[in-house]
Amino acid sequence: MPGLAASDNSPPAAAPPPRRLSSPLPRRAPPSPSPSTSSRAKPRKPAPAEADESLDNPDLGPFLLKQARDAMVSGEGGGAARALEFAERAARALERRGEGSELELAMSLHVAAAIHCGLGRHADAIPVLERAVAVVTPPPPAEGDGEAADENHQQPQPEADQRGEEWSLAAFSGWMQLGDTHAMLGRMDESIACYGKGLEIQMAALGDRDPRVAETCRYLAEAHVQALQFDDAEKLCRKALEIHREHSAPASLEEASDRRLMALILDAKGDYDGALEHLVLASMTMVANGRDIEVATIDVSIGNTYLALARFDEAVFSYQKALTVLKSARGDDHPTVASVYVRLADLYHRTGRLRESKSYCENALRVYAKPAPGAAPDEIAGGLMEIAAIYEALGDLDEALKLLQRALKLLEDSPGQWSTVAGIEAQMGVLYYMIGRYADSRTSFESAVAKLRASGERKSAFFGVLLNQMGLACVQLFKIDEAAQLFEEARTVLEQECGATHPDTLGVYSNLAAIYDAMGRVEDAIEILEHVLKVREEKLGTANPDVEDEKKRLAELLKEAGRSRNRKQESLENLFGTNSQRAKKEAGRRWSNFGFRS
């Protein structure tokens, strides 16, 4: 997490290590009754009263806060539990002191939240941190005091906290810690909102051109990248780059880091030439500073960009150059070496050299089977996912499924990886569907959808496509009502994210028309299909095969609607026949000719 008052070159602090969720701290056992007391006698009440009175000591809060910190550092005798008890008691004591103790109260709450996170109890840390930021965050300006926002800022610039920099530091740290905790729970929208609030406070205290502001801008840009919000990420990254170029020496390491992030953003937006320019400049900076491993890592990114530009020879050269350096520096069994093998496997698959592609996949799998000590599980899981995609393209679906199951096992219990796990489960759902295991496909899709709902990613195009795929699995299981609900939700999401004329949205329209027809809602199906046909004619022309297919489907529906509506009921197997089955059947008027689109 970027610091408000740290040195210019201080990196963001790492997120707290994940742990298993555990129960809240047990309360101290009440004193046992004396032998002369009946078992039915009420427990004595003076003890709690005496405990409450002890909190009135003005020196108790700071003392308990110091005890909490010492217990955290020592880690002896249940250090985390003792530290949490000290921190919570310190917070109660400081709260009773009232005015003048706000900073120490916020600090004790930060310590308690950090302990909760260290124990893996991130959800318990959220209300503690919300209380901490409420204590020290300055109130918003009165309505009408601020100037109108300009085109680069949606909200007016906040004023500096008049109580001093310590208050701003406490508020900034609290909001950033709260953002990190939301991120560990997969709540990216809430996380980004907290980071944004922290950035506002930091800019008000330090000015918007301070190098420490640049660090926070880059930190927030990385969060936007994780949330696939690339336009917002690009704005923040450009601001960080401008500040670092203003305050740092030419070709600084900070500028190189900004350029690597900018290249990632531009690559995601399809601006490969712009990404390549930033990567080359970053590589030159790393070469000048003697950072050979960083140069090799950038060479891999350059190879990826060349691959996207179909400049295959240059991509191979970049990959091989990086592979040589990484093998020499880190050894043959390091996951970064395996990641280069994966990139080469992907390149050779795209160029039709399937034997070389599979050979590099096998080399990478040997590394992932016995990786070097300290290898990150998410790095290995990412490599397995990429290899699975290659095996899927090669037609080896069973092997691809095994690799995805290995990747899922590595990440399924890791906090902060919900989106990645959802992606793995979605890919598994597709594979299950392709091999005809529709119940397993629906289960995988359902789990992925639940994770994305919980993490707040219900407004992405990926979520809409996932709902559509789950609907197709429900069709194969003859769960018609559930499929209709999923297609309707997918339509809403994709209309908002992609527009009504996007190919993915049109595919959902076609599926929804088919399901409405299966439910007897022929008029609704006709209305949807007429829109689909109109858009396809405008975009593809009237002679396109897809347009002809939609015309035949619409003609079939119109003919059905013009009859007496007492059509012969057909089985669900005919109603939801697959594309391959339809191709083999007669071209007569059967509902299997009205199919679904993935």
Explained architecture:
The chain has 598 residues and is mostly helical. Among the domains are: 58-137 and 163-206, Serine Threonine Protein Phosphatase 5, Tetratricopeptide repeat (Alpha Horseshoe); 448-597, Tetratricopeptide repeat domain (Serine Threonine Protein Phosphatase 5, Tetratricopeptide repeat). 69% of the residues lie in helices and 0% in strands. The protein contains 26 helices and no strands. The protein has helices at residues 46-54, 60-74, 79-97, 102-118, 122-136, 165-184, 188-206, 211-226, 230-247, 253-268, 272-288, 292-308, 312-330, 335-350, 354-369, 377-394, 397-411, 418-434, 438-454, 461-476, 480-497, 503-518, 522-540, 545-561, 572-575, 579-584. Helix 2 (60-74) packs antiparallel against helix 3, helix 15 packs antiparallel against helix 16 (377-394) and helix 16 packs antiparallel against helix 17. The protein is globular, with a radius of gyration of 30 Å. It starts with 45 loop residues before the first helix and ends in a 14-residue tail after the last helix. The model is unreliable at 4-51, 145-156 and 563-595 (pLDDT under 50). TPR repeats lie at residues 296-329, 381-414, 506-539.
